[in-house]
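Q: Got a minute? One more chain.
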Amino acid sequence: MKKLNIIAVYDSKEQNILFCYRKKEPYKGLYNLVGGKVEDGEDNLEAAYRELEEETAITKKDIELKPIVTFYYYFSDIELQAYVGKLNKEVSLVEEVNHLEWFSVNEDFLDMKKFAGEGNIFHIIEQIKIYHQQIFK
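A: Always. Here it is, folded:
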């Protein structure tokens, strides 16, 4: 099964979430959480930190990532691991390929004409709200 990850990055005040605007498929022309592929033999959490740094320049020193949910897509042979973290300071973002943009936590993440994932982003963010105390303690 091919492993992928996505990361919900909250700003230090938990008012905004970082997204990338997809320039290629899948989800070309939509906003998605940052992330990428887990390489063969790579630790899942380390892969999330690597992808985050590659796509944004955010490092382990800037954020602590925690797993929030994993989706298994059996017909497409994909395991999608979702992580969450809150920045511990202001950072300067560096775009790798996709444009990076902050969206308010109050955004309509069910808008599938704007956001990737067929509603999964909404679900992930709702899970973060439910377990907020445990995640951001």
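A: The longest strand covers residues 2-10.
Q: Perfect, thanks.
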